[in-house]
């Protein structure tokens, strides 16, 4: 049987189709390797990295645009060969269409990534979790216990070991807004719109010792410092009668308190200021202050550095070597909203609500954002103690514990 012109044409068409398929497959393989590296390469890169870096991932817009152009060009080349034409416009048009499609997909991928991680490295931190009751809102920790306050009362958990709720105290107390532990005595202080309640160590009923809308508490060895509207007072641990205690009145409502026992100071934030106070006789005197420019929601301290969570304004760091004149040294503004802060040695943790928890390295100048642990949930409160950081996840109704020096 002879070889006709029709047979030759069919063979050429088949050869061109096969060549086109091979080119498309090859380009697809290259694209897959660029977007998703081989597991061995990923593991090798991870093994070489000692800690996360702040460098953002490669732009998916650029990568997808290039790959789209390559695939589009390959398809255009195949179409031109298949049709037997010589026009370069087919290749150019197909390349442009492929580049446009790649750009659209890449831009959407980058937009989604940046809305979640704000251009920082995603952190995948392993946590030990304890499920909570009710709606938790407040968190406090000392060297042995963690206290979580909310609509169910205050759940007391051991600082280390298994994360199991050991004791539920203050059951039925409505609208708990603040909790504090008073080391080493073990007294528990609870703040609510009704007032300040004190509970003895381990077991026993509590007592209302100060009526009024309590916004913040700090526990000391012999006293509890309580903020009621614009006033800060000193209440003894063992009193069981409601009264007004000696203290000092601020110019605006008090939002957060932090006790610095090493320097004998009490730090407070108001609507616009960071204020240093010191006990004098049975009351408080103002030592120094610095403007914040926003409401100071929470405080954390390491050595002579204080971090203030400022909500939409991020976090501001102060050098408080001289408490009479706190000096602002840095501002961090990556999170949409900074709910709370904690510090463990050289690492700053920022609770950013639905974004999760940001981790910042304070040992470098300027400080470096190590990444965002998005998987830790809706983080609204933090406490760091003895190498661990505790995160209150209000979405999952869970208390999470992670290693601070991961």
Gross geometry: elongated
Fourth CATH level, the homologous superfamily of the largest domain: YVTN repeat-like/Quinoprotein amine dehydrogenase
Estimated helix fraction: 10-25%
Give the DSSP E fraction (strand runs of 2 or more residues). Answer: 35-45%
Task: Give the biggest sheet.
Answer: 4 strands, antiparallel
Average of per-residue pLDDT values: 84
Low-confidence stretches: 23-56
By CATH reckoning, the class of the largest domain would read Mainly Beta
Reported by name, the CATH topology of the largest domain is Methylamine Dehydrogenase, Chain H
Structural class: alpha+beta
Radius of gyration of CA atoms, rounded to a whole number: 30 Å
Number of contiguous helices: 4
Number of domains: 2
Could you please describe the fold and organization of this structure?
- The protein has 406 residues and is α+β, with helices and mostly antiparallel strands.
- It folds into 2 domains: 5-39 and 57-117, no CATH class; 128-403, YVTN repeat-like/Quinoprotein amine dehydrogenase (Methylamine Dehydrogenase, Chain H, 7 Propeller).
- The chain has 4 helices and 28 strands.
- The strands form 7 sheets. It has a 4-stranded antiparallel β-sheet with strand order 1-28-27-26, with no helix packed on it. A 4-stranded antiparallel β-sheet has the order 2-3-4-5, with no helix packed on it.
- The longest helix has 31 residues, at 5-35.
- The chain is elongated, with a radius of gyration of 30 Å.
What is the gist of this entry?
By secondary structure, the protein is α+β, with helices and mostly antiparallel strands. It contains four helices and 28 strands. The longest helix has 31 residues, at 5-35.
